[in-house]
């Protein structure tokens, strides 16, 4: 193939076999793979999920996306990485970018896409979102029939979270890390503590499942990728 | 294997290669496959998505789930199908049930799960939701950072839909069929017409994409699986 193409690939929630069949095929064909890395962890979690599908010849480029409140620093990183990707594609290469979960939901990919412009040939391959992974593992329903679901970041204002918990039968609370006590108090206030579960690292070896939020000790250190699912129409059975 | 197990498998949005690697493997191993069928269409869409992964020996049981307002008729169908599945599993078989999109979101599977009880060995395999499939195909972002997303059924009251469209940066409007003009008027009232796209049959041969809702003729017959994505922070470029 002489015309370059860029594939943005969602890796799903964590288990290697929860990527799509299409993603597995494309990962075996690409020549360059961009993987997001956090300097602290050293290796990219997304990369560890897909490594078994890559060809031996692939050039892996781990690139650091800063997790900072400094918008200028983030923009500079996105500009540089997008420019490097565009160069690889225009030189005729098959290029991949991997992202945890789904590429179009809470993903850095969107910031790159905005910079890559319409002149490049781009294909986005969807991935299983973290909350779908959790719902399946815990056999915990999201929403049904005429019900609705809100997907919220716990970094939002408490009033915004309260309103979502009142308005929607099902609420996914992402980015729980460091905010658990505040969220647990809010759920208790609304009478929803019995309707919620917490899971971290769903589908991975280090998966942690709390079917009862009341059982989590005050001050207990929860994993970074902790997510709470709330469904006020559904009280989970003890597992 | 002598102990039976039941696998609930999400088939994703429609393309056969958008099922997970795990789903593909399990589909090749099961001995009995339950597929939901609508009498009108004759063949099951979910079955057509996964057929290429099935073994030659598999016993396919297409079962009809009535689409009716009669709750008693629906419950009777769920009771009967769940009882038949449980019998297959307790007799030692590897049994699959397939469902469009994801098993735990707007899926009949949950009604079966409630009836199957905790004594059976059950594994739920997640699938790509329809809206994630659409977002990828249209390269249309769902939500980012501190934003939130609501997933709504257009069968909900107009006031409920209006509030979701005001409260959330991103709104997924499912079950648009037969309600398009009402929804389009609501989006126009809220100044969101330019922030919305409509797609049907995403990732399938008969995919239809309307990047501009204003371009849809009044009274135009839209496909049954039409979904609208709204993102008020993101005005899509013309494709």
Secondary-structure element pattern of chain A, one letter each: EHEHEHEHEHEHEHEEE
Radius of gyration of chain A: 19 Å
Number of helices of chain A: 7
Q: How many strands in all of chain A?
A: 10
The CATH top-level class label of the largest domain in chain A: Alpha Beta
Percent range for β-strand residues of chain A: 15-25%
CATH architectural group of the largest domain in chain A: 3-Layer(aba) Sandwich
* Regions with little confidence, pLDDT below 50 for 5+ residues of chain A: none
Helix content of chain A: 25-40%
Question: What is the global morphology of chain A?
Answer: elongated
CATH topology of the largest domain in chain A: Cobalt-precorrin-4 Transmethylase, domain 1
Order of strands across the biggest sheet of chain A? 3-2-4-1-5
Question: Can you tell me the CATH superfamily of the largest domain in chain A?
Answer: Tetrapyrrole methylase, N-terminal domain
> Averaged pLDDT of chain A, please?
92
**Based on the structure, what is the oligomeric state of the protein chains?**
homodimer
Supply the number of structural domains of chain A: 2
Distance between the termini of chain A: 51 Å
Of all chain pairs, the largest interface belongs to: A-B, 58 and 57 residues
**The biggest beta sheet of chain A, please?**
5 strands, parallel
The assigned structural class of chain A equals alpha/beta
GO molecular function (chains A, B): cobalt-factor II C20-methyltransferase activity; precorrin-2 C20-methyltransferase activity
Pathway (chains A, B): Cofactor biosynthesis; adenosylcobalamin biosynthesis
EC number (chains A, B): 2.1.1.151
Protein name (chains A, B): Cobalt-factor II C(20)-methyltransferase
């Amino acid at each position: 193939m002489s015309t370059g193409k860029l594939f943005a690939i969602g890796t799903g929630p964590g288990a290697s076999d929860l990527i799509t069949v299409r993603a597995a095929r494309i990962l075996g064909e690409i020549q360059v793979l961009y993987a997001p890395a956090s300097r602290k962890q050293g290796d990219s979690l997304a990369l560890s999920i897909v490594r078994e599908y890559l060809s031996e010849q692939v050039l892996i480029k781990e690139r650091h996306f800063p997790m900072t409140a400094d918008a200028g620093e983030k923009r500079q990183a996105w500009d540089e990485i997008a420019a490097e990707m565009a160069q690889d594609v225009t030189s005729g290469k098959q290029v991949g970018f991997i992202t945890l979960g789904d590429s179009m939901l809470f993903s850095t990919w969107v910031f790159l896409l905005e910079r890559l412009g319409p002149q490049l040939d781009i294909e986005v391959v969807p991935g299983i979102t973290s909350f779908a992974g959790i719902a399946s593992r815990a056999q915990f329903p999201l929403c049904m029939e005429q019900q609705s679901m809100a997907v919220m970041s716990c970094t939002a204002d408490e009033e915004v979270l309260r309103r979502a918990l009142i308005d929607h039968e099902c609420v996914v609370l992402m980015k729980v890390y460091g905010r658990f006590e505040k969220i647990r108090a809010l759920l208790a206030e609304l009478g929803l503590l019995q309707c919620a579960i917490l899971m971290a690292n769903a589908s991975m070896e280090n998966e942690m499942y709390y079917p009862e939020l009341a059982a989590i000790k005050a001050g207990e250190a929860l994993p970074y990728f902790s997510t709470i699912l709330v469904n006020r129409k559904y009280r989970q059975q003890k597992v």
